[in-house]
Design a protein that fits this description.
Length: about 700
């Protein structure tokens, strides 16, 4: 299932069948097409509140993205998946450790810290750093985008929302797939997975994926692509059915990327984006992530207890370069400037909760969580052209975070068709920071510690107008604790203040035409007190705080038009503005009324999916045509908090056409058919009026093969 706000396909099924029979027909006749396939939309479940639920019962917006659709669209990373989701913005310079997400105009205004979790990302129930979104997508079952503050159930943070990633689990039958793609610009991807029973009590699954592509940037000094990033991901899972009521799932994952770095390219790009840089600068760039998790679940007669434990170890080293073109524009000299970014992070998390069983009339959950993190963010080397290292210049920073919380949420039927939801969480947050900044051989020490405790929560009400339509209203409070930024270069510049988020949402989730049409709508307003943003000049970064406000609305629909054709789409309108004047800035004054950067007023997406059985073709007795066309629109959005200039709107069109037979498919694909090198981010240097950014890949075509069993 592609872009769609969750609704139920189960409520009212019996009443619809009875209505059909009263009209002289049958529900089964109306829900099944001429080729014997159901023409109602498929059912969905989500884990937006820690247990499986019908999305209709959740009093806030949820966008659900199916893992199979993500594979068909050929997305290389979660960044790409989220960038085509209306209401979600991703800021990235193309490196492996610089992703920053906002939802509905709420989130850190530029990447601030690896500890900033305005948007929480959960992988199989445990948090992962949003900076890992550039890693490849591996064997995903489903992606859920939860909009609005989610601090009640997810770590105490998530003031803008949460991203839930669910991977495919071991099964009690043998199944798997193999997939391969190759296309222009050396784009290729190979993926495989196999799972099934190992004994009466054990099942396993192994998945692997490797992909690569050329950077869409030519190095003037070689005439070749700047580099060819590649990714490798491996995950193994073991499911132990200890008893009928008790199970344990252990997973090990390894992700590796090479030859990625932050891209700083002088604008305008033109048809062939260029950079003028010493060759081989990305050769040593790499990122490794190792992750281990254990989930234990036991069901009682009327409840269940779940424990999720995880540990991750991440290391990244990559350069940040100002090439000769950017340096000439900024400094008047055709030179180079670079620095290494070396990042390490170790995170342990534990969540223990008791909850109602899926499908229970009374939903409830209560639990406790803990997180401990140690990380470093260093610039061990700084240099210039031809790899020259400047002596006596470096920055070393060490951070720790401890976070403990207790939480609970309940949805109570008050009267027939009316439910009230209430949730609360209390969090204790402890941080430490130690740094050594060295310039021209002179070192300065800096350190600090912060402690904060805060309460987040939400209150909502939902009403079933009909068995097929719910309306709801929810008010939520989120919170982003203060901390220490990654990019400080002098003593006293690291600390930033806490911010509070207040959000209200009203909406409707509905179905029509015997569950062939799903239509969801919502309107929201969010106020952030002391939102934090990066103020930059040259290579230096500083922290500012200002209130922001965003208002808007979203509409999403899925329509099974006919047996062979499904249309899906969504549109988002967001007006996100900064509400304070901030004059003590390096990059220029920030004025009240400026728009929040990277947030377009309008964004949207439309997909057409066509699947039809064909007559015999040669040696193919029963082939099937599978085709899809995806269109994404992202409107203009400011490049920075000063609103110096806007990044252009863009249109992205992707397509895939395949012929399948008995689980084997051959297909052709085309991506970004419009061909625009749209912006991944934008920057403006006020002293020199220099604009730079990172271009997205242009048009590409290729072939693919897949087989499922």
């Amino acid at each position: 299932m592609a872009l769609s706000l969750g609704v139920s396909l189960q409520a009212g099924l019996a009443s619809e069948a009875k209505a059909q029979q009263n009209q002289g027909g049958s529900a089964s006749e109306d829900l099944v097409g001429t080729q014997g396939r159901a023409i109602a939309l498929p059912t969905m479940t989500v884990t937006a509140r820690r247990i499986e639920e019908d999305p209709k019962d959740i009093p806030f917006s949820v966008t659900v993205l199916d893992g199979k659709e993500i594979e068909q669209k050929g997305n290389y990373s979660l960044e790409e998946v989220l960038r085509s989701t209306p209401g979600v913005s991703v800021n990235t310079s193309g490196g492996a450790n610089v992703s920053s997400i906002s939802i509905r105009g709420v989130g850190a205004l530029y990447p601030l810290s690896m500890d900033d979790a305005s948007v929480v990302v959960n992988l199989d129930g445990s948090p992962v750093n949003p900076r890992n979104l550039s890693l490849g997508i591996l064997d995903l079952e489903q992606v859920e985008v939860l909009k609005g503050p989610q601090g009640t159930l997810f770590g105490g943070l998530g003031g803008a929302g949460a991203i839930n990633l669910t991977t495919r689990k071991p099964t009690r039958h043998v199944e798997g797939y193999v997939q391969g793609e190759y296309g222009e610009d050396h784009q290729h991807r190979m993926a495989a997975a196999v799972g099934g029973p190992l004994s009466e009590q054990f099942s396993g699954r192994l998945a692997v994926q490797q992909s690569a592509y050329d950077y869409p940037i030519t190095n003037r000094q070689t005439g070749e692509p700047l580099s060819e990033p590649d990714f490798l991901g491996v995950r193994g899972s073991l499911l132990w059915d200890i008893q009928p009521e008790t199970s344990a799932l252990f997973s090990v994952e390894y992700d590796h990327s090479r030859h990625m770095g932050e891209n700083i390219v002088l604008k305008p790009y033109g048809d062939d984006p260029e950079i003028d840089l010493t060759p081989g600068v990305y050769d040593y760039s790499k990122k490794n992530m190792k992750r281990y998790s254990l989930e234990v679940n036991h069901e009682f007669e009327n409840s269940q207890i779940t424990s999720v434990t995880s540990y991750s170890d991440t290391y990244n080293i990559s350069p940040v370069f100002f090439d000769r073109m950017v340096y000439q524009s900024m400094m008047g000299v055709p030179s180079e400037y670079w620095r290494d970014q070396e990042v390490s992070e170790n995170v342990f998390t534990q969540d223990l909760r008791v909850s109602s069983l899926p499908g229970a009339n009374l939903f409830w959950v209560a639990g406790a969580s803990a997180l401990y993190s140690e990380r470093g963010y260093d610039h061990p080397r700084v240099g210039g052209a031809s790899g020259i290292v400047y002596p006596g210049t470096s920055q070393y920073r060490d951070f720790t975070t401890q976070r403990y919380g207790v939480y609970g949420e309940v949805t109570v039927p008050v009267i027939e068709d009316l439910k009230v939801t209430a949730g609360v969480r209390h969090t204790l947050d402890l941080k430490t920071y130690d740094a050594t900044y060295t310039a021209r051989g002179v070192s300065v020490q800096d350190s600090g510690d912060l402690s904060d405790n805060f309460t987040t929560g939400r209150l909502g009400v939902s009403y079933a107008v009909t068995p097929e339509a719910n309306i709801y209203a929810t008010f939520s409070r989120g919170y982003n604790p203060g901390g220490y930024q990654d990019y400080a270069e002098t003593a006293g510049d690291a600390e930033y203040k806490a911010g509070s988020i207040y959000s209200g949402e009203v909406g409707m989730k509905s179905e029509f035409l015997n569950k062939r049409l799903r239509l969801d709508a919502s309107a929201f307003v969010t106020k952030v007190q002391d939102n934090y943003m990066i103020d930059s000049k040259g290579v230096s970064s500083f922290v500012l705080n200002a209130d922001t406000r965003s208002v808007g609305g979203e509409l999403a629909a899925s329509w099974r038009v006919a047996d062979a054709l499904t249309l899906e789409g969504g549109v988002s309108y967001i007006s996100a503005v900064i509400q304070d004047d901030v004059n003590a800035t390096q990059g220029g004054a920030v004025k009240a009324g400026n728009h929040v950067p990277d947030v377009p007023e309008w964004s949207g997406k439309v997909s057409a999916i066509f699947n039809k059985s064909l007559p015999r073709i040669g040696f193919l007795p029963s082939p099937e045509l599978n085709a899809r066309l995806d269109y994404t629109y992202v409107g203009e959005r400011p490049a920075d908090v000063q609103n110096h200039y806007d990044l252009d709107a863009y249109h992205k069109v992707d397509t895939r056409i395949g012929i399948a037979q008995s689980g084997v498919e051959l297909y052709v694909w085309g991506r970004n058919l419009v061909g625009d090198h749209y912006d991944l981010y934008g920057f403006y240097d006020v002293a020199s009026a220099t604009k730079y950014g990172a271009p997205a890949p242009g048009r590409a075509f290729g072939l693919g093969f897949s087989a499922t069993f």
